[in-house]
Amino acid sequence: MATSLLNTNAPLATAHLPKEGVKRWAALLMLALAGSIVLWVSAKTSVPFYPVPMTLQTLVILVIAAAYGFRLGLATIALYLLEGALGLPVFSSTPERGIGFAYMMGPTAGYLLGFVVATGLVGWFAERGADNSPLKLFVVMAAAAASILGLGFAYLASIIGAEAAWSVGVLPFLLGDAVKVAIAALLVPAAGRFLRR
To answer: What is the number of alpha carbons within 13 Å of residue 84 lying toward its C-beta?
Structure first.
């Protein structure tokens, strides 16, 4: 078991890239940029759902983490957050509720930190074979989604109190996140099987 946790596989998105050189770095840069743009679009995409409409952002974060792996996944999330810090309206409620670093330190700061933790968690396990199994990936992604909500809740609770933070910052999103985790856990292994063919 311990040995399997140390062994790594090439992430799905980088498996067929050149092993080294300028072409590899250019391809990695393009993947990170493309991922940050997809994250931007997903944050602005609202899907009718119960009890509240949901964005596709968590779904895209989980898919990017599993497909890109640990390092490229984190680099992509870091680029996305940098775009936000520089004032680009990449987050779901920007520019309506502010932009830039000041917005990032507001009530959503915990969730943004959760994006980083979730990406690292899913990427690490995906590189160790979890991306081949929908069940394993579901468990890892569920933990990752819980880390986003947990960190978001903790920071929000420090501002508005635990009861209010739970009712507005966690409870309305539990069902939607469960659906997004299930979709992502099925999508990535299916994409891997398709590409291997």
So the answer is: 28
Query: How far apart, in whole angstroms, are the C-alpha atoms of residue 88 and residue 43?
Result: 13
**C-alpha span between 42 and 59 (Å, rounded):** 8
Both ends of the chain: CA-CA distance in Å? 29
49-96 tens-digit pLDDT: 888 888 999 999 999 999 999 999 999 999 999 999 999 999 988 888
On the question of a cis peptide bond just before residue 48, with omega within 30 degrees of 0, the verdict is no
Instruction: Output the CA torsion sign for 12, 192, 58, 48.
Output: positive
How far apart are the C-alpha atoms of 64 and 73, rounded to whole Å?
A: 6
CATH class of 12-196: mainly alpha
> Cα–Cα distance between 1 and 81 in angstroms, integer?
35
Six-digit token string for 170? 């966690």
**Domain segments of the chain: what residues?**
12-196
Q: Give the H or E element holding residue 80.
A: helix 57-85
pTM: 0.90
Report d(CA 116, CA 123) in Å as an integer.
10
| Per-residue burial over 21-43, b = 16 or more CB atoms within 10 Å of its CB, e = otherwise | eeeeeeebeebbeebbebbbebb
